[in-house]
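Exam revision sheet. Question 4 asks you to relate a sequence to its structure. Input first:
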Amino acid sequence: EKTLTWALRQHHNQQEQGQQDVVLELGIGMAGLAGLYMAQSGRAKHVILTDGHEKCVQNNRINVRLQQSAYKTTNTMTLSSSASQKRPCPVDCQLLLWTLEADDIPTPLLDRADLTLISDCTHFEHYHGHLLWTLLSCTKSKTGQVWMCQPDRGQSWQRFCNLMDAVNEASENEEAGPLVSVQEQTFSLLEELHQNFLANKTNNNDASFYRPNVHRPRIVVLSKLRDVSETDRQAILRHLTERDQNRRAAHK
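Answer key, structure tokens:
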């Protein structure tokens, strides 16, 4: 999540000041760092932090109060110098379970977020369908984006990409057009660090712990191209069923 926050800052430093109406973060864990950055950076009018665990939600409510208290005490923001005179925007913390059921996502979150954030969650492969459906159901059509940050973690990221490809292929067959476009973001500093770690690993230096499959972050932007549909949901279900069948067959 720290890397996702850094990437958002780099992206914002290259853009003119602007605001997203609603920023939604899924899977905040105990920190909600990326969402809190958006709240204090002046780049959001409203931030919603969510997780499926009540303790995480409770902890982030404390984090939000600490952030607001720090502003009142110092009137200075620490993550973004350009936002040093801005009051943090309103932040809500909510319980949100990822779902693949069409009617289970709270209506106030449907098609609402201009920007949705999530970090290091695609290794939960059993929940790939729930995650993709929730991400795209909550993100605004045509203008909304999802920023994701995660390593490959075995084949988990590739399998998530395969799921998105399957949904796009199914919708194109129905002449609805693709649901989502996928663009990986590149940052020179991250590539430099990656190459340095590889070199140190080769030279048997202290970077011997470095495993790109587990440690190298991929920062990917999904653009939601249209409304989600029942065709998309059924495509997710079919792909996951086939994937599970192939996995079981491979282990026989």
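Marking note for examiners. The CA atoms of residues 37 and 69 lie 15 Å apart.
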